[in-house]
Amino acid sequence: MPHDPVSDPNVPPGGVSRRGFLKGAGLGAAGAAVLESGLTAIAEASAISAGPAVAGPGRVAISITVNGKLRKIEVEPRVTLAEALRDELGLTGTKVVCDRGSCSACTVTLDSTPVVSCMTLAIDVGDRAVTTIEGLANGEILHPVQQAFIDHDALQCGFCTPGMVMSCAALLDRNPAPTLEDVKSAVSGNLCRCGTYPKVFDAALAAAGSRRPESQGR
Ligand code: FES
Ligand code: FES
Questions:
Q1: Closest ligand 2 atom number to CA of residue 195
Q2: Among the atoms of ligand 1, which is closest to the Cα of residue 107?
């Protein structure tokens, strides 16, 4: 039966099908089929390598929820969450000390999970809720961890303190009755150059309504 290009769905209106073209170019049916499958594979590979849309390098508009408020800002894709909080939103309670993920001074929470904001890109936050040290208090009423840090004099220079408080608050969210070991583990990434660890442990346990066992030395 002769081939009818008009009724062939693979033939564009008024055109020639890819297979028809290949056959017309001197390839047999088998050769045309092999070449056609190769072209299809190349087309699919090209589509995959094209990947998702690329943001930047200029400023892009993003919306992030910080301390319960939706904030719209424009940032370059390279901007970290710590930079966006401090420089775009004026929330300077989050401290940047090492700026390379090794001290946890910049700890904030994303959906209650503590993260180092100097290693989190602002454009990657998405719809997760950001809580900073400014968002812990309920109006004039301090978060129990904040109050306990004051009561137990758990800070000296204060550079590590916002991160320490955020790590301890996140611990109490997921474990309301932590042990001393739990507290030590929760702040194991938080470096304090002033050596306030014993008082930080006391404060976290006091905030949880726990008492540090006397038998466990500092
Ligand atoms: S400032 Fe982010 S981990 Fe040190
Ligand atoms: S209080 Fe100074 S680094 Fe911790």
A1: 4
A2: 2
On whether the pTM is more than 0.85, the answer is no
Using the mean position of ligand 2's atoms as its centre, give its distance from the Cα of residue 105 in Å.
9
- Tally of residues, the chain: 218
Give dist(CA 148, CA 199) in Å, integer: 10
86-to-50, 54, 159 alpha-carbon distances in Å: 35, 25, 15
Band (46; pLDDT cuts 50, 70, 90): low
Probe ligand 2: pick from 103, 159, 164, 187, max atoms within 8 Å of CB? Answer: 159
Least confident of 56-60, 129-133, 145-149: 56-60
Strand order in the sheet with 107-110: 69-75, 60-66, 129-131, 107-110, 113-116
Ligand 1 center–CA 157 separation, angstroms: 16
Domains delineated in the chain: 1-51 (no CATH), 60-207 (3.10.20.30)
Going from the Cα of 192 to the center of ligand 2, the distance in angstroms, rounded, reads 5
34 CB-side CA count, 13 A: 4
Mean pLDDT of 135-152: 96
Q: Quick count: other Cβ atoms within 10 Å of Cβ 102?
A: 13
85 lines ligand 1 (CB under 6 A): no
pLDDT bucket at 55, cuts 50 / 70 / 90: confident
Q: Can you read off the two tokens belonging to residue 178?
A: 């932590």
